Amino acid sequence: MEAVSNNYEKGAIKVAFATNDTKNIDAHFGGAKQFYIYNVTSKTSDLFHVVNIQAKDTDETIAKLHGVDIVYFVDIGPTAAAKVINNGIFPIKYKDIVNIDSEIDKLKKMLGTNPPPFIKKIIDRKGA
C-alpha cells in the first residue's frame, strides 16, 4: 500500500508505529512488517502512509521513514537506535504492546496541553 492521504496540516507531527497486526505497536523495529505513519495535531490524526518492509535492512527501513518525527516500537537494537536518532527521528520504546489509536489519543492530548520538551523541540524544528 502506498500513500493513504496527502493531507498535512501545519503544526502536525509525523509519527510512525511499528506494527505486525495493523492495530497495535507490537513489533521490534528491525522485525516490523510495516510502519503506519500518521500526521497528528492536537485536534486531528490522519493515516498518511503505510510503509511495508520487505527485507530486514535497517538503513533501508530508516530511508523509508524519512520525514518521520517519532517512531514507536517494542524493541530496537543499539546500532539501529543510534541510526534512528542520527536521522532526526525520536525513538519511543514500549515494553508491552500498546494500541495505536490509544497512543494517538494521548499524543493529541499532549499536543493540546503542555507537550513534553522533546515534542516542543520537534514542533520548533518544523517551524510550526
Q: What is the fold's blueprint, element by element?
A:
Elements: E1 13-19, E2 24-25, E3 34-40, E4 45-52, H1 58-64, E5 70-73, H2 78-86, E6 90-93, E7 98-99, H3 100-112, H4 117-126
Parallel strand pairs: 1-5, 5-6
Antiparallel strand pairs: 1-3, 2-7, 3-4
> Helix fraction?
25-40%
How many strands in all?
A: 7
Low-confidence sequence ranges: 1-8
Q: Structural class from helices and strands?
A: alpha/beta
Q: What do we call the CATH homologous superfamily?
A: Dinitrogenase iron-molybdenum cofactor biosynthesis domain
Radius of gyration: 14 Å
What is the beta-strand fraction?
25-35%
CATH class bucket:
Alpha Beta
Overall pLDDT confidence: 90
**Tally of separate helices:** 4
How many domains? The number is 1
Named at the architecture level, the CATH assignment is 2-Layer Sandwich
Strand order, main sheet: write it out. Answer: 4-3-1-5-6
Shape: globular
Distance between the termini: 29 Å
Major sheet description = 5 strands, mixed
- SSE order in H/E notation? EEEEHEHEEHH
Kindly identify the CATH topology.
Nucleotidyltransferase, domain 5
Structural summary, described in words:
The chain is an alpha/beta fold and 128 residues long. The chain has a single domain, classed as Dinitrogenase iron-molybdenum cofactor biosynthesis domain (Nucleotidyltransferase, domain 5, 2-Layer Sandwich), CATH 3.30.420. It is 30% helix and 27% strand. The protein has four helices and seven strands. The protein has helices at residues 58-64, 78-86, 100-112, 117-126, and strands at residues 13-19, 24-25, 34-40, 45-52, 70-73, 90-93, 98-99. A five-stranded mixed sheet has the order 4-3-1-5-6, with helices on both faces.
